[in-house]
Structures are given as structure tokens and as C-alpha cells.
Specification:
Elements: H1 6-67, H2 70-78, H3 81-94, E1 100-104, E2 112-115, H4 129-139, E3 150-156, E4 159-168, E5 185-192, H5 195-205, E6 211-213, E7 222-226, E8 232-237, H6 243-261, H7 263-291, H8 302-309, E9 318-326, H9 328-334, H10 337-352, E10 359-363, E11 368-374, H11 378-393, E12 397-399, E13 402-404, E14 407-414, H12 422-438, E15 445-446, H13 449-470, E16 475-484, E17 490-501, E18 505-507, H14 509-519, H15 522-539, E19 545-548, H16 551-554, H17 559-570, E20 577-581, H18 583-588, H19 590-603, E21 606-612, H20 619-624, E22 629-632, H21 634-637, H22 644-659, E23 663-666, H23 672-681, E24 685-686, H24 697-705
Parallel strand pairs: 14-15, 17-19, 19-20, 20-21, 21-22, 22-23, 23-24
Antiparallel strand pairs: 1-2, 1-5, 3-4, 4-5, 6-8, 7-8, 9-11, 9-14, 10-11, 12-13, 16-17, 16-24, 17-18
């Protein structure tokens, strides 16, 4: 090597070194840029998704405030449209919480709706029937009596609406009879995703250029706005924020200078990269924190609450305390939603003082808060905490000069085993909370065996009933004689369903029929029982029966035609069957009930109003409906001879029925003395253990149908 060539070689080595460094740094920078761009896209989509979820959650919470309202359920059942205008439709007209409201079902013949752009007058057809059908399909998967609804997006008049749908039903089952799904009204509330709301979403998640597009743009990130049938109705698109690319543009001058200045500037460039990455991580952390925080109270929201439940816990070392404010809707409606927000803020402040290192608090709904307790003695601490919450809520809330006292329904559950999942524990606490809401005088309610057993039993009965309907032999009919009070001879026999399940034994009819109604099996069960009754009618031509029919069966469109087809196929006259209905079917849908009764009479059936006096007894209903027989419930008959007051009431019922040209059956006759008194009062027919107990068809035929063996019931 000569001296003259050494500088060149040194230069070559330096150039090579610099080149390697430049290539290495360039490759590293471009790789990091790509990774940061991908990460920015992912986090932006997640923030937008959470924001859309919050829009639907707020819409659901608002809708449930109106839907789970005792008075609204009662007014809707009566078809009180003026009340609906003032108390529900006005919310759409004002346009703060919703710009669109549609109510249908219950006591309404047609749907009615209100919007913020059409004045205060209600009108029909506010929503496309297809959208209403999507809401109905979604609500079909929501059990009755559950504080839930469904949400989705839909187009209307050139704008996208965030919609929430729910059943309008009483919160406390004690406020009225249990209704079937067909008789319960529905409500849809919607909020327009206008330019201002979309812009607010963009500002909230720190994204630019956000807008609604009918189709997903190819050159911009977007998320679909899903309809009720899981299809996108539009897309929310925004300008991509490529943090890595933006950072690279800022670094290009430094990289060019680095090529000339080599290693020194390479170090400076890497420092800039690290600094930029650190800033991006901090921004992402702030955004992630905002997505997991309730904006009104600053407490963890539902997403954060779900994350709290993710870690496993040992038995007895985790508990959930569920809190739902009683009377919160009254505050919103009477003082205003701003006052309602102030209640939530003040309540969050009071509850926040009860937290500690092993006790977290989250707001997961409009007026729903939940505590998560971990560590030893979680059950005892949950019970203590529940009473502490009651004490914290005891002082009145100061709302714009008004002092308002509010209570809460409190339910809690303690993890029973190591394998229990957090969502199962939340479900248990939720069941306990609803038990507390039904019995407000009980105070906090702990989830226990009875609550869980009731839920478990209903599921077991449903499974067993499905198996029974798929097989033969488990279901049967027992008959209880109904006799003429004057002659003592059999007039007809009431057909009573009986079920003996292999794993459950004998299941009471009121239990399995209620489960059948709740699970949608009542139509199939009714067909099976009708078939068994028809078998007996075919074998015993002198037999006439009374057949109990569920409101869900009667109000089914094909009930009367299917019944007539079955009887015609078997050659049985409709006059041999008396259809027994309870007062509930009249209250659920009086017009449809009247039409069905008219069809039954036209076909040759007689009809009876069963259990009269135990429900919504109304003389007007008796005058309007075409009943032939009035069956007075056993609660009015049993022991009536020992009470002059009860005797007078029973006598008045019989006189009323006769004035309306109805024959009277008194149920629950337990003694000859009662039968004699009924004969003196002019009662037509009698039924009860004194006459005879329910029995299989063979025993009924032997004791009551054979001419030479027929019994005569006298006192």
C-alpha cells in the first residue's frame, strides 16, 4: 500500500461506513414509519368504533328511560295518545335527546311518531316499515321483563339516524298482569347524525375530515354503520393520520444533512425518531384513556369495567355491587336532563368517596353504577358497601334550587368458585338488583340460591318441555266435572293439562304454561293438548268439555281456522267445546279479542270468561264481549257461607251475570252446604272437589258418562 493511495482507501472505508450507516438508518426509518402508520390507522379505527358505540349506548339508555316506565306502559295499553304526545312525543319535538320517536303496538291500532322537523302533531308512517321490522326482529331476541333494547343505524329522509328500540313495559311486575310479547308496545327513538354531530365525534377522537359516506371510500379509512340486519347502511370515513409519514417528512432535511455529515447526524436522526415515537405513544395513551372514561363523571366506563373483570379471581375474593337509581327518570322529565346530569355528577362524587385500593367504581349506563370489590372478605365488604351507599344517598340532591331525594335498587353477588367468569357474576348481581327493584322495601339484595334457582328452573322446564313436545306420552289431560246445580247432572268437564317429565316429575300447569308462553312454545303445546282432548271427544260422543286457551293462542291469526280444521278432520262438532278465557286476553287487545270471540260464536263454540274477579273485572267488557258463561273464581266462593259480606258479593256477581244473560259457574265448591247456598242464590253450574276431583278420561267415563253409572251431584 503506498502513501498516496492511503487517503483514498481511508476515504473509501469512511464512505463505505457512512453508506452502510445511511442504508441501515434509512431502512430502519422507513420500517418504523410503516409500523407507526399502521398503528395510527388501527388506533384511529378503534377510537371511532368506541365513539359510535357510545352514540348507540346513549341512545339505548335514553330509549330505556322512556320504555321501562310503568305509566307509559299503562297509558300505551289504554291507547292514550294525548298522554303519549305530552310525555314521549314532546322529546322528539324539542329535539335535544332525540329527533325521532315512533311508538306502536299495545293499545294502538297504528304506529304513531314525532320528529323535530314536522311540528308537534303526531303522524303515522314516520319510519319505513322495513326499519320497524328490523327493530321487531331484534327485540324478538330480548326476553320479556329485561332492561335491554336493540340499536342500529338507518337512513331516513337523506340522513342517517342512530336508532334504539325497546319494549314499553312496566318495570315492576306487580304494577299489572304479565303481558305476552304480542300485546306489549314498542318504541324507537333516534338521533340524527348530522354534520354537527359527526364533527363533534371527530373532535372527540381527534380525527380530521370525518364524514358520512354511502359507500366505503377506497382511498380513506372508514367504518360501517350497521343496520339491524347486520348490513352496512353507510360508512363513517375520515382523513388518514399517518403519524410515521408525517414524522418522516419532518426528518427528510435531517436525513439529507446526515448523508453529508455521516454518523453525527445519524445519531441526531435517531434521536428525532425516538422523540417522535414517544410523542405518538403519549397521544395514543391520552386517546385510549378518553375511550375508557365516562365523559360526564370521569369514572371508568363500560369498556373499562369489562377490562376490570378480565383477570381471574378466587372464590370469595371478588364481588359485584350493582346500583340503579330509583326515580331518575322523574328528575329528567320534571326538572330537565341538565338536572339529571347534575344528579349523576353529584352521585358519582358521593360514591367515589367509598372507593379504596380493592374497590373500583364505574358508570356503565345512564343511571347505573357498579362497584367491583376484590380481595379477602369480598362478600362481607359488599354488604357493608351496599349499606354505605344507602347512607351516601340519604341526603337530598340540590338541583337548581330544588332539593330532591332519590333512592337506589342495590343488588350484589359474590364469586362462588374459582372458575366463575366475570360476566356471569355481573349477571347474578343484575338479577339481584332487579329483585331489589321489585321489592323496594327490602333494601340491598344479595344474589342467592332462590334467585338463581328460579332462573335455572325456568331454563330446565323449557328444555324438558321441548323434549316432551318432541315425544309422546308425557302430556295428558285430566277432567273435572261441571254439573247443573239444580239437577246435579254433568254438563261438561273442564280439560286440565297435566305433565309428568322424566327428570322433573309432575310439573304444575301454571308453571309450565307460563314457561311455554315466555319461550314461544305455547302454540305448539296448545296444538298437542287439543289433539289429546279431541282423541277423548272422539271416543266419548256424549262428552262436552271446557278448554282453557292462552291469550297468545287466541290472538294468533290462525287459531280459529286451525281449530276448526282439526275438529272437521275428526268429525267433532264445535258445540261440544266451550272455550275458556281469562280477563287478561281482553285487556291485552280488546278489539282483537272481540273479533276472535265473534268468530268462535259464528263457528258454533260457546265461550266462558274464567277466573272472574281476579283481574281487570269490568262490566263494560262483559257487555261488549260475546261470552256465554261467567266462571266466578274460587277465591270468592271458598267459605262464602261464613261471611255475610262475601255472600253479598257473590250474590251480586250472580245477579250481574244473569242481568247480562250469562250462565254462572262457581268454582271451588268444597262442601254440600256451599252447594245448597249456591242453589238458593240461583247459580247455574258448580265445579269443585265436593263435586269431584280432576281425573283421567277413563274414570270420568265410568263415573259420569255411562247412563247406568252416571253420578248425580247433590249436597
Amino acid at each position: 500500500m503506498t502513501i498516496s493511495r492511503l487517503p483514498g482507501r481511508i476515504v473509501a472505508v469512511m464512505v463505505g461506513t457512512v453508506a452502510v450507516m445511511v442504508v441501515t438508518v434509512a431502512v430502519s426509518v422507513f420500517w418504523m414509519t410503516r409500523a407507526m402508520d399502521d398503528q395510527a390507522r388501527t388506533h384511529a379505527a378503534e377510537r371511532v368504533r368506541n365513539a359510535l358505540g357510545n352514540v348507540l349506548s346513549q341512545m339505548r339508555a335514553t330509549t330505556l328511560d322512556y320504555a321501562k316506565w310503568n305509566e307509559a306502559a299503562a297509558r300505551l295499553a289504554k291507547g292514550d295518545t294525548a298522554w303519549l304526545d305530552d310525555n314521549i312525543g314532546s322529546a322528539a319535538v324539542v329535539g335535544e335527546t332525540a329527533q325521532l320517536i315512533v311508538v306502536w303496538g299495545g293499545g294502538l291500532v297504528d304506529d304513531i311518531g314525532w320528529t323535530d322537523d314536522s311540528g308537534p302533531e303526531r303522524r303515522t308512517g314516520v319510519l319505513d316499515p322495513a326499519i320497524v321490522a328490523l327493530a321487531e326482529a331484534g327485540l324478538a331476541g330480548v326476553p320479556l321483563g329485561v332492561y335491554q333494547g336493540v340499536t342500529f343505524f338507518a337512513w331516513r329522509d337523506g340522513a342517517v339516524f342512530a336508532l334504539a328500540a325497546a319494549r314499553i313495559e312496566a318495570v315492576d311486575a306487580a304494577d299489572g298482569p304479565a303481558l305476552d310479547d304480542a300485546g306489549i308496545g314498542r318504541i324507537i327513538m333516534g338521533r340524527r347524525l348530522d354534520e354537527g354531530m359527526v364533527r363533534a365525534i371527530g373532535e372527540g377522537v381527534q380525527i380530521d375530515g370525518i364524514e358520512i359516506a354511502r359507500a366505503a371510500p377506497a382511498d380513506r379509512p372508514s367504518l360501517p354503520l350497521m343496520s339491524g340486519d347486520a348490513r352496512p347502511v353507510a360508512h363513517l370515513a375520515w382523513d388518514p393520520h399517518l403519524a410515521g409519514t408525517a414524522l418522516l417528512r419532518r426528518m427528510l432535511p435531517a436525513l439529507a444533512l446526515f448523508t453529508a455529515l455521516a454518523a453525527g447526524l445519524a445519531l441526531a436522526g435517531m434521536t428525532l425518531v425516538r422523540r417522535g415515537a414517544r410523542h405518538l405513544a403519549m397521544a395514543e395513551h391520552r386517546s385510549s384513556t378518553a375511550a375508557r372514561t365516562d365523559p360526564l363523571t370521569g369514572l371508568p366506563n363500560r369498556a373499562a369495567f369489562n377490562a376490570m373483570l378480565a383477570p381471574p379471581a378466587s372464590a370469595g375474593e371478588r364481588a359485584i355491587l350493582f346500583l340503579d337509581v330509583n326515580g331518575f327518570k322523574r328528575v329528567n322529565d320534571s326538572i330537565g336532563h341538565a338536572a339529571g346530569d347534575e344528579v349523576i355528577v353529584q352521585l358519582a362524587g358521593r360514591l367515589g368517596t367509598l372507593r379504596d385500593t380493592d374497590c373500583s367504581l364505574a358508570r356503565i349506563g345512564g343511571d347505573e353504577f357498579v362497584f367491583v370489590l376484590t380481595g379477602a372478605n369480598a362478600g362481607f365488604r359488599a354488604k357493608w358497601l351496599a349499606h354505605a351507599v344507602e347512607r351516601a344517598m340519604a341526603p337530598p340532591f340540590d338541583l337548581r334550587g330544588q332539593r330532591v331525594r332519590l333512592g337506589a335498587a342495590l343488588g350484589y353477588a359474590v364469586q362462588a368458585d374459582d372458575q366463575a367468569r366475570g360476566d356471569a357474576l355481573v349477571h347474578q348481581a343484575d338479577l339481584a338488583m332487579y329483585e331489589a327493584k321489585r321489592h323496594r322495601d327490602r333494601g340491598p339484595v344479595a344474589y342467592g340460591a332462590l334467585i338463581g334457582q328460579a332462573d335455572h328452573d325456568a331454563q330446565a322446564i323449557e328444555r324438558a318441555l321441548r323434549e316432551a313436545l318432541a315425544q309422546q306420552g308425557q302430556l295428558s289431560i285430566a277432567y273435572q266435572p261441571i254439573t247443573d246445580v239444580g239437577t246435579g247432572r254433568l254438563v261438561r268437564a273442564e280439560a286440565l293439562a297435566r305433565w309428568t317429565a322424566p327428570g322433573l316429575g309432575s310439573v304444575p300447569p301454571d308453571r309450565f304454561i307460563a314457561v311455554a308462553e315466555q319461550s314461544g312454545l305455547i302454540i305448539e303445546l296448545g296444538r298437542r293438548l287439543l289433539g289429546l282432548v279431541c282423541d277423548d271427544l272422539g271416543r266419548h260422543p256424549d262428552l262436552c268439555v271446557g278448554l282453557n286457551v292462552s291469550p297468545l293462542q287466541l290472538l294468533a291469526p290462525a287459531f280459529v281456522p286451525d281449530l276448526l280444521d282439526e275438529l272437521a278432520h275428526r268429525g267433532i262438532k264445535p258445540s261440544r267445546i266451550e272455550i275458556e278465557l281469562t280477563e287478561r286476553v281482553i285487556v291485552d287487545d280488546p278489539r282483537l279479542a272481540a273479533r276472535c270471540l265473534s268468530e268462535l260464536h259464528a263457528a258454533g263454540f260457546s265461550t266462558a270468561l274464567d277466573d272472574f274477579g281476579t283481574g281487570y273485572s269490568s262490566i263494560a267488557y262483559l257487555e261488549q264481549m260475546e261470552f256465554d258463561v261467567l266462571k266466578i273464581d274460587r277465591s270468592f266462593v271458598s267459605g262464602f257461607g261464613a261471611s255475610s259480606e262475601r255472600l253479598a258479593v257473590l250474590n251480586a256477581m250472580i245477579l250481574l251475570a244473569h242481568a247480562l244473560r250469562l250462565r254462572v259457574v262457581c268454582e271451588g265448591i268444597e262442601s254440600g252446604e256451599e252447594l245448597d247456598l249456591l242453589r238458593d242464590l240461583g247459580c247455574d253450574l258448580a265445579q269443585g272437589y265436593h263435586i269431584d276431583r280432576p281425573m283421567p278420561i277413563e274414570a270420568l267415563a265410568a263415573r259420569w258418562l255411562a247412563p247406568d253409572l252416571a253420578r248425580v251431584a247433590f249436597g
